[in-house]
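TA notes, week 10

Several of you asked for a full example with nothing omitted. So below is the full record: structure tokens for the whole chain, then the designed sequence directly under it. When grading your own attempts, check the secondary structure regions first.
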């Protein structure tokens, strides 16, 4: 009788462990906002017109304003308790987007800022993307805030760069073979230049 009781207890315990292991627990944490330094990193609001020059030609990109929203993101998973129940941690992460559209071409600039969180700290990502229609794009990634010394995969940077005779400092860039080939961004001026083809360089002229 005692042996049957022991077997029953052991089987019940294993069944409880298996069932508990199949379940997961959702933990919602506080809303995560972009750091103030990140919000001020680019001197752009989405309400201005960006004018780029190429020799005697000019190309205008009109801002369409900005949009702020929150995305519910799972940023961490842990196994907790005696039965190792998986706990999934979620938070609403702030997002901010700005677009600049060219009326005379297919080119569109999109600026996306993302609040991020995980086992490797808290950080803010900035993406500046130049699209040429639906299939071609070039993007620069910049980390504008972080709480840990982890490498989050930033784009490369030139400490100084001359584009079409103009000098720029601390320029993040992405250079690629497919179009649009090159994109250049810095903190002081924002989007400073881009190439649509190898010998076709456009540099920032004015913001109005």
């Amino acid at each position: 009788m005692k042996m049957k009781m022991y077997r029953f207890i052991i089987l019940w315990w294993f069944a409880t462990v298996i069932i508990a292991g199949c379940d997961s627990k959702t933990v919602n944490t506080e809303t995560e906002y972009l750091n103030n330094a990140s919000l001020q990193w680019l001197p752009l609001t989405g309400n201005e017109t960006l004018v780029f020059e190429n020799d005697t030609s000019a190309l205008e990109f009109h801002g369409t304003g900005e949009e702020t929203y929150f995305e519910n993101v799972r940023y961490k998973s842990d196994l907790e308790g005696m039965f190792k129940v998986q706990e999934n941690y979620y938070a609403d992460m702030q997002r901010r987007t700005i677009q600049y559209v060219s009326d005379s071409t297919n080119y569109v600039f999109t600026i996306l800022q993302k609040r991020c969180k995980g086992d490797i700290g808290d950080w803010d990502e900035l993406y500046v993307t130049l699209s040429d229609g639906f299939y071609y794009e070039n993007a620069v990634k910049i980390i504008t805030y972080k709480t840990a010394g982890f490498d989050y995969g930033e784009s490369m940077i030139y400490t100084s760069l001359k584009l079409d005779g103009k000098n720029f400092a601390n320029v993040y860039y992405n250079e690629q073979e497919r179009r649009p080939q090159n994109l250049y961004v810095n903190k002081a001026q924002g989007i400073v230049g881009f190439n649509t083809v190898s010998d076709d360089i456009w540099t920032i002229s004015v913001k109005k």
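DSSP finds two helices and twelve strands in the chain. Use that as a sanity check on your answer.
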